[in-house]
Design a protein that fits this description.
It contains ten helices and no strands. The radius of gyration is 19 Å and the shape is elongated. With about 200 residues, it is mainly α. Helix 4 packs across helix 6, helix 5 packs across helix 6 and helix 8 runs antiparallel to helix 10.
């Protein structure tokens, strides 16, 4: 292995270790020292790759944004699924991150939006997501409906994580809510077009 390959492998090991620590105990469990120990590298190695704990946590947020963007990109490429179903699956993928990895999800939305690398990663997801929305409601209506869907998904995820979205109370589950949202924007956009 070259020195560059070794450095890249160490960085990947550190990110994996940090992700595991985050998933197990939240941001408080992620320290550069603990990450290095978990990755089995020298005590100083994490400091050579990350300026601070905040920098490392931002990298974890970026990795999560990128993974979600990859999933949405795959949905866009599936010709066998209707545009509305692809959009439902994209919204459910976002909620799925909150369900499966709540600490990663919190980091995604807790990292300042003006952090250039995080902004770029989030922007990639948003671009792909808006393309899915445009397939359902048209290009000009996509930004407004996209914001409505994204903020609704965030609210659904938060309510579900906090236990305030109990099916016995609301008589609806998350999949049904998402379907209702997508159907609502599809019909709303169709109705708006009819009034022009």
């Amino acid at each position: 292995m070259t020195r560059t390959e070794t450095a890249a492998a160490t960085r990947r090991a550190l990110l994996r270790a940090a992700t595991d620590l985050l998933d197990e105990g939240g941001p408080g469990a992620v320290t550069l020292r603990a990450v290095g120990a978990r990755a089995g590298v020298s005590r100083g190695a994490p400091y050579g790759h990350f300026e601070s704990k905040e920098h490392l946590l931002t990298q974890l947020a970026i990795t999560t944004w990128d993974s979600l963007a990859d999933a949405v990109e795959q949905l866009r490429a599936d010709p066998d699924v209707t545009p509305a179903t692809r959009l439902e699956q994209a919204v459910l993928a976002l909620i799925g991150v909150a369900r499966q990895w709540p600490h990663r999800y919190a980091l995604m939305f807790g990292t300042p939006a003006d952090t250039p690398a995080a902004l770029e990663a989030a922007g990639r997801l948003e671009t792909d997501f808006l393309a899915l929305v445009a397939d359902v409601v048209g290009e000009s209506a996509a930004p407004g409906y996209g914001a409505l869907l994204m903020s609704s998904a965030h609210g659904i995820a938060g309510m579900e994580l906090s236990g305030h979205l109990a099916k016995d109370k609301w008589q609806v589950d998350v999949d049904q809510l998402v379907r209702m949202l997508v159907d609502g924007i599809r019909l709303g956009a169709k109705g708006a077009g009819a009034h022009r």
